[in-house]
Specification:
Largest sheet: 10 strands, mixed
Structural class: alpha/beta
Helix content: 25-40%
CATH class of the largest domain: Alpha Beta
Radius of gyration: 20 Å
Distance between the termini: 16 Å
Number of strands: 12
Number of helices: 12
Number of domains: 2
Order of helices and strands: EHEHHEHEEEEHEHEHEHEEHHHH
Strand content: 15-25%
Length: about 375
């Protein structure tokens, strides 16, 4: 029986349409090779759409809710005041669709240069799970006496046991299928109330997963250990704000934002999960063909794993890694191929079955189907 999935495509702003276009070409190749089908609906969203219509997430919410997954390009433009798109669309989607876990692999692929001298792929293979709907990103705060010397700003950080439990339990399950180590990253010596709640949840759930070793690292110490000894970590679970920071550090270690990927997972299956490269819209290079589409294509692989198409996910990941190893540079005019040429080369390897699967022997991207909230369960 041929499986079919509904996928919402949101190309967005800047380089978003270019990298998503390459990802969709690879998706065509994966469908041809592995025999599944996707029904795709493309929606306008982002800065230009907002400037033209004033619309953010509310107008799309119900249309997106019926989809199996969302493939997202990028969002942002200097003509839109900072915070409008981030809060009115991206954070709104994460909260409204309960995309509770932001999953960010930090994997140095063969042939990809890292700024960390001597770092090898064998030493850099971890996953950071960021709580995605609470913390300082709930968007609650106020300013008193704004614009005066007496201005006072208050910004709230919300942490609930239920919200923490669902991402910590997910992280334990993820660790079970990997090297069986879970690290909590927080700042329990200063943020004692929130930190204590996080630590209590980890301690309580650890009793259900005795096979998993539990560790703790302060977030400032994480910024030291992650670049120097990434092999120390397997699955790292952390709060929203800390996760936002350390995942970008992880992306630099693995070769840059252009090769990093993410999944925003609804863990109950009650709404679609969203998959996006973590780079921004890069309006300064939009339309030049300089953007590396690898992050978007690896996000596609994450989506395929989530949908239950593990073989296709692994083939897409392997083909992308193979092409990354062929590029003289990872982005810009020195990349050696245009955005569309990189996508076409990856699609060719997938369609022909010539992707070197040995490049990704342990593929997180291919195994998402076994995790909570997967549409492939």
């Amino acid at each position: 029986m041929t499986h079919s999935y509904s996928v919402a495509v949101l190309p967005g702003d800047g380089i978003g349409p270019e990298v998503v276009g390459s990802a969709l070409e690879v998706l065509d190749a994966a469908e041809q090779r592995f025999g599944f089908r996707t029904e795709r609906s493309e929606f306008e969203a982002g800065a230009q759409h907002y400037l033209r219509t004033g619309e953010l997430f509310d107008e799309l919410a119900e249309k997106l809710r019926s989809q199996d997954a969302i493939l997202f390009g990028s969002m942002g433009d200097p003509h839109v005041t900072p915070g409008i798109l981030e809060r009115g669309f991206i954070l709104e989607m994460r909260q409204r669709f309960e995309q509770a876990a932001n999953v960010r692999p930090v994997r140095l692929y063969p042939g990809v240069p890292s700024p960390i001298t001597g770092l090898t792929p064998e030493r850099c293979e971890l996953v950071i799970v960021r709580e995605n709907t609470e913390g300082a990103y709930v968007g609650r705060g106020s300013t008193v006496h704004a614009g005066t010397p007496n201005a006072v700003a208050m910004q709230e950080s919300l942490n609930t046991r239920a919200g923490i439990e669902r991402v910590v339990d997910f992280s334990f399950r993820l660790a079970l299928g990997r090297r069986r180590k879970l690290t909590l990253c927080h700042k329990t010596n200063i943020l004692v109330a929130a930190g204590q709640l996080w630590q209590e949840v980890v301690n309580d759930l650890a009793r259900l997963y005795p096979e998993v070793e539990v560790d703790y690292v302060h977030v400032d110490a994480m910024c030291f250990h992650l670049p120097l000894t990434p092999e120390r970590f397997d699955v790292v679970v952390t709060d929203n704000l800390f996760g936002d920071i350390i995942t970008d550090l992880g992306a630099v270690i693995q070769g840059g934002l252009g090769v990093a990927t993410s999944a925003n997972l609804n863990l109950s299956g009650s709404a679609p999960s969203m998959f996006e490269a973590i780079h921004g819209s890069a309006p300064d290079i939009a339309g030049k063909g300089w953007a590396n589409p690898s992050g978007a294509i690896l996000s596609l692989a994450l989506m395929l794993g989530h949908l239950g198409e593990g073989d296709a996910a692994r083939a897409v990941e392997a083909a992308t890694v193979q092409v990354l190893g062929e590029l003289p540079a990872l982005a810009g005019a020195e990349m050696g191929m245009s955005t569309s040429e990189v996508g076409a080369r990856i699609a060719e390897l997938v369609a022909s079955g010539q992707a070197d699967l040995s490049l990704v022997p342990d593929s997180l991207l291919a195994t998402l189907a076994s995790l909570p909230g997967s549409r492939g369960q």
